[in-house]
Amino acid sequence: MGPKRFAIFASGTGSNALNLVQFSRLNPHLISVELLVTDSPRAQVIAKFTAQGVPVAIVPFEKNKKFHEAQILKVLAKHNIEWIILAGFMRILSQDFLQKFYDEKLDRNRVLNIHPSLLPSFKGANAYASAFAANVTHSGVTVHFVDSGVDSGPIILQKSFPRLPEDTLENFISRGKQLEHEIYPAAIRLLMGEKIDECR
Ligand code: GRF
Asked: What is the pLDDT of residues 83-110, one digit of tens each?
């Protein structure tokens, strides 16, 4: 069996997305990143993928969610995509969309997300800022399967980090991002049946 065919959905700076392209290049037996899907023509991630030679599909939101998701599904079908990785894609995918990626053996959708908190705490947007503002002693990052709720699917991996007394929001986020870049590849390794050194 060859590597699974992945699409990454991202609409921001794309640090996780690019990190996963690099991971796929180092582990060509595991995954192949075939496509970037973005809804934002101005997203910084586009230039990063173009520079890597990975195809980019820009699918701006048009008409309504059903129409938009149908456009995305067409592109995914064209590239025979088996798995989806969300990495800063700021839209909630519908149940209709997700069920196209339902895997009976896993009893999960083959759609992954990374969220910058220790779920179930701080779901939704701006999770780093919310955790920081709440003066938590620890925060963390979580990779989970996507269901039709908001940041609510089954958890695959989580890693925590302390909030230091001298932390600014900026270095709190940057410590979290470093962990994001570790656990997304680790979670994919796990799902592809490989052992990893660390556990939840
Ligand atoms: C990350 O913090 C991720 O946890 C969240 O969106 C952000 C994307 O950041 N879902 P980047 O574009 O990968 O740097």
From this structure: 999 999 999 999 999 999 999 999 999 9
Residue nearest to atom 1 of ligand 1 (CA): 88
Burial call 99-119: b when 16+ CB within 10 Å, e when fewer: eebeeeeeebbbbbbbbbbbb
> Hey, whose CA ends up nearest to atom 7 of ligand 1?
88
d(CA 190, CA 59): 30
Among this protein's residues, is 115 annotated catalytic? yes
Q: Cα(176)–Cα(138) distance, rounded to whole angstroms?
A: 11
pTM, to two decimals: 0.95
> Is the minimum distance from the CB of 176 to ligand 1 under 6 angstroms?
no
DSSP letters, 57-109, are EE----S-HHHHHHHHHHHHHHTT--EEEESS--SPPPHHHHHTTEETTTTEE
Which is the catalytic residue, given 29, 79, 115, 144? 115
